Amino acid sequence: MDIEVPEGLNPELTALGWLVGRWEGTGNGTDHDGKDFEFEQRIEFNHNGGDYLYYASQTFLLGEEGAEPTPLGMETGFWRPKPDATLEVTIANSDGWTELLVGKIQVTRIDLRTDAVVRAEGAVVSHSAGQRLYGKVEGDLMYALDRATTEHDLRPHMWARLKRV
């Protein structure tokens, strides 16, 4: 198994070491109205010696060939692993909500589900729950994000394959 442990990484983060770095690529999604879309994404996981990774993700809606991508959304947050291979992730989303996810680390696979969501009054979408799957496949970061809102049950929302840059 190809597991990286970046230099200076807090030993408590070893199980997440493979995530550290910058990832870019494209993906597909279905919006809250059920319309399909394509997007470009940049994700960065980094560390500062603490017992957490910090995370930032930016997505851009891809339009017609040659058109400039349009900002779609941004997330930032913290990934905090526990000694028993569980994981707590706190994410703030530019659409007006903050989500606490909990899950399990299984070598290069991470399964997360929503524990709590707090929405601002002006939230763009009434996000109420989610689940995420992250994995390292052939050196790439692959993920799938399912989302529920007050208008629909949990369903696929975004999925992508990103390359380390």
Automatic annotation (TrEMBL):
Pathway connected to this protein: Nitrogen metabolism
Keywords linked to the UniProt accession: Heme, Iron, Isomerase, Metal-binding
Chain positions of motif GXWXGXG: 21-27
Domain of life (superkingdom): Bacteria
Enzyme class, spelled out: isomerase
Names of required cofactors: heme b
PANTHER family given in the database record: PEROXYNITRITE ISOMERASE THAP4, THAP4 PROTEIN
HAMAP family listed in its UniProt record: nitrobindin
UniProt protein name: Peroxynitrite isomerase
Taxonomic source organism: Tessaracoccus aquimaris
Phylogenetic placement of the source organism: Bacteria, Bacillati, Actinomycetota, Actinomycetes, Propionibacteriales
